[in-house]
Amino acid sequence: MVCQPDQHASTTRESGVLSSGGFGEIRSVIRKKYAEVAVSAEGKFQYPVGRDGANALGYDPAVIQKAGPGLLESFCGVGNPFSLGEIRQGDVVLDFGCGGGFDLFVASLLAGDSGRVCGIDLTEEMVKRAEDNLSGADTANIEIRKVDSEDIPYADNTFDVVISNGVINLSPGKSTCFSEIYRVLKPGGRIQFADVVLENELPGDLAGSLDAWSQ
Ligand SMILES: C[S@@+](CC[C@H](N)C(=O)[O-])C[C@H]1O[C@@H](n2cnc3c(N)ncnc32)[C@H](O)[C@@H]1O
Questions:
Q1: Which atom of ligand 1 is nearest to 41's Cα?
Q2: Residue nearest ligand 1's atom 19 by CA
Q3: Between 24-39 and 124-135, two packed helices, what is the crossing angle to 10 degrees?
Q4: pLDDT in tens, 55-93
Q5: Ligand 1 lined by 57 (C-beta under 6 Å)
Q6: 3.30.1490.20, 3.40.50.300, 3.40.50.150, 1.25.40.180: which CATH number matches 6-214?
Q7: What SS3 string covers the chain?
Q8: Ligand 1 center to residue 123 CA distance, Å?
Q9: Ligand 1 pocket check for 150: Cβ under 6 Å
Q10: Is this structure's pTM higher than 0.85?
Q11: Domain limits, the chain
Q12: How far is ligand 1, taken at its centre, from the CA of residue 9, in Å?
């Protein structure tokens, strides 16, 4: 995946190339890609995904062992947000872009019965996959909602921790992602996110490519 700056967000496609327009078409491309990933993440990224990805990123082996095969099959995180700080029993946690639900599952175990874990995702198929993946698990403290934009459907000062894993780079509205995350965090709350950043200028053909948003 590549991370593109906000100024590209006001562009959209002409024959697969970014030109003037809105965010809608970028979101359509993201949804199309992640509808496919919801079936299986295998072979759809340039980094390890699934069980291999979770192992490589240092997730707790005992938690990987507990996760159902579906949670691991759809896992496509780029890092490990849980390595950045402790989630405590009783915490209220938001997973911004929860995908197939593996990070929700991990957060649910850490927050415990006295905590609450909320997942939001842009892609209907991913929301459905997360619901299916978690239906057999003992995860009564989880709720999942589909969203249509970067707006977070929760009140100000709701969460102790917001986690996110490979999501903000996909967004055409990065400033809104951060302002929304800060809005829903309680005072003193934390954001723990893993993501992809661009270190060098992209070559012209990639910089103008709509498909590059989701790679
Ligand atoms: C790399 S995956 C997340 C992996 C996930 N944490 C897991 O445990 O498998 C990225 C997810 O972000 C979602 N997404 C992209 N843009 C979003 C946005 N603006 N708001 C919410 N979700 C978004 C995609 O639909 C996709 O499911």
A1: 9
A2: 150
A3: 30
A4: 999 999 999 999 999 999 999 999 999 999 999 999 999
A5: no
A6: 3.40.50.150
A7: CCCCCHHHHHEEEECCEEEECCCHHHHHHHHHHHHHHHHCCCCCCCCCCHHHHHHHCCCCHHHHHHCCHHHHHCCCCCCCHHHHCCCCCCCEEEEECCCCCHHHHHHHHHHCCCCEEEEEECCHHHHHHHHHHHHCCCCCCEEEEECCCCCCCCCCCCEEEEEEECCHHHCCCHHHHHHHHHHHEEEEEEEEEECCCCCCCCCHHHHCECHHHHC
A8: 8
A9: yes
A10: yes
A11: 6-214
A12: 17
- Judge if the beta carbon of residue 123 lies within 6 A of ligand 1: yes
Condensed to tens digits (0 to 9), the pLDDT of residues 122-161 reads 999 999 999 999 998 888 899 999 999 999 999 999 999 9
Tell me which of 33, 108, 121 to substitute to probe ligand 1's pocket, judged by most ligand atoms within 8 Å of the beta carbon: 121
Q: Does 119 sit in the ligand 1 pocket, CB within 6 Å? A: no
Task: Read off the tokens for 136.
Answer: 């057999």
